[in-house]
Amino acid sequence: TAHPTEIVRRSVSRKFLRIQHLLSELDRPDLSRLEQREIGEALHRAVAELWETDEIRRVRLTPVDEAYNGLQTMEQTLWDVLPDMYRRFDHALESCTGQGLPMGLAPIRFGSWMGGDRDGNPNCTPQVTREVCLISRIRAAELYYREIGRLHQDLSMKTASADLLREVGLDTAEPYRKLLKKVLKRLRKTQRHLHRTLQAVRSGELSRLPPIRGQLYLQAEKLRAPLMLCYRSLVASGNSMIAGGRLTDILRRIDIFGLVLLKLDIRQEAGRHSAAVGAIIRHLGMGSYLEWSEEEKQDFLVRELESRRPLIMSTFPAPDEVDDEIREILETFRMLSVQNPESLGTYVISMASEPSHILEVALLQKECRLQQAMPIAPLFERLDDLNGAADTMERLFAIPWYREKIQNRQEVMIGYSDSAKDAGKLAAAWGLYRAQERLVQVCEQHGVALTLFHGRGGTVARGGGPAHEAILSQPPGSVNGNMRVTEQGEVIQSKYGLPGMAMESLEVYIGAVLEATLRPPPEPRERWRKQIDSLARDSLQEFHRVVRYHDDFVAYFRAATPEQELGNLKIGSRPARRRPGGGIETLRAIPWIFAWTQTRLMLPAWLGVGVALEAAIDRGDKPVLDEMQQEWPFFRATMDSIEMVFSKADANVSEMYDFRLVPTPLKPLGEELRRLFRKTMNLTLAITGHKVPLETQPVVLRSVEVRNTYVDPLNVLQVELLSRVRSKEDDASLDALLVAINGISAGMRNTG
Predict the structure, then answer these.
(1) For this structure, is 468 an active site residue?
(2) Where are the alpha helices (DSSP H) in 346-498?
(3) Which of 152, 193, 297, 421 is catalytic?
(4) What is the pLDDT of residues 669-724, one digit of tens each?
């Protein structure tokens, strides 16, 4: 779970789920007339409640609010779905291999950076991260208390193993219950301690927190041990069937969720770490770090990492020694040093491009004395950084200290959103593919086990699309039994909001990862590589011609879309821009795509593609393109995702926005973009071999057509409301505009 920018309020989502549940109940054939009537009345009430509920979020979410929402999804569906899914996985393995899923293994695990992502988010402070870690542990303790309480009721049998009887007493009538009663008592103490700690953090009185009395459950293994004792006792006593019930589910939850539900990733931009290290060096009078060459930086960082002496004292910095941004970096690392290591996941460095960016974080972790060093994952986002990713990692692996530190395991994150905003859909997709190929090669050469972390968004322009096809289209060897992927925004609710959908989503991931590992896609032929190189180059040139170098583009974008008005939507804790001012380059990927989705032009998902395809066809390369579409999963998945976008898009709607909102001097650019849109759609269909978008997926096409019927009038309303809001003739129109944005977003099934 990454950026939780879902436009639908949680209150509204819960009512949707309630309505869906009631509709499912109403479908039962065994209902009596009275039951039908009662469900019908409940359905009317739920709809009335929804009608009377404000659709607009009036108060901006904080990172803590976002974390609460993420934990709610875990509690409402995944807490129960995961044990059921593991049971299915266990049965499937046993039927295929004769052996089930061993206890202690967790094929699927979850993490989050809600409350830990401070990349351009000033609202994510050390205090926030500390709170989120505690809240997560509190919710986990409460859930385990509930489940083990039920287990206490189940395990009333008296036959037990000698090991268990030695633990609770030989003359105990109900040995399992006696052991579990101790577990429940300890869990209750743990809850009280965590609640007191959270209150102390919020009040700023941590120093007055009383010392821990008695044993608490602060490590997952401590809770797992007595439960495993019960499990082994039941198996040894001939009660394997009982052991395989609720007890196995709880043990598997411990393997999946630990005692934290979600391990918290920390993310920060590379330049902030460099600035912090530079401030330390300047304070010590050792020179100007930021002016050093990359080699000088690496030499210094490795020397300090190998040294046993500290580089800085705990008293640094004094109030007047550094600015607020550097102080925040150092306070963050010091806060992480006092967190339970089990609460923390990976430290992700956005905008990484050099080995020193990774070594800087390692040094800051060392100097701030983290109890257990967090794994560090560089995030390569922009096209140039993706092209240099393998070289960066190769230089890191050549450092003996680093190789020993990582124990031959490395996580690397690749960014779909910023790469597409930087280079366009086609060039970014090929850049990501090549980066993965080279990273796999480098890691194999050095004997390093690689986990690729795919930073996908919900939309096609941010790497979204059907998960099965996306996974099977990755380079051979890149899905080597494991992968990591982000689920963002409204995708979290749509994939995991209902138990049935959550089960299906997880099974798709497991199936696709297994298939891609055991039956990887073919290596691309040399002529395919040459062709996609040309397509990417032509696409990139056209994308930059319009987005970077066209004099009217920024002005047109702000006039023709509701980009400026999106700031009134309180859908996330992060500002829409990484830094104030600037053009497209400072705008985050989500509002960039969100704005074009609202006007139905969907420009980020196709701009540059048509020009590239036309040039290839003019060169006589249509047979090669057809061959790639038929035989290369990567190219087919890319073209199919672009085709899907055209089923939602509508150039006529975009023209309506231009007619009312765009100044006359800027209108020619809009006409040019719509001409490119139509050309790109026709050329895409020529490659996929379809007459209309989604021709081979009639159910999905019908779903889009039904939604479009309702979205079209909302677009008409939005144009009028935008005109009124911008002319300031009607202050009341802003609320109506925000509701229209909500409605179009729901119809398009994404924000960005």
Answers:
(1) no
(2) 355-367, 383-387, 389-397, 400-406, 417-423, 425-446, 467-472, 490-496
(3) 421
(4) 999 999 999 999 999 999 999 999 988 888 888 888 888 888 999 999 999 999 99
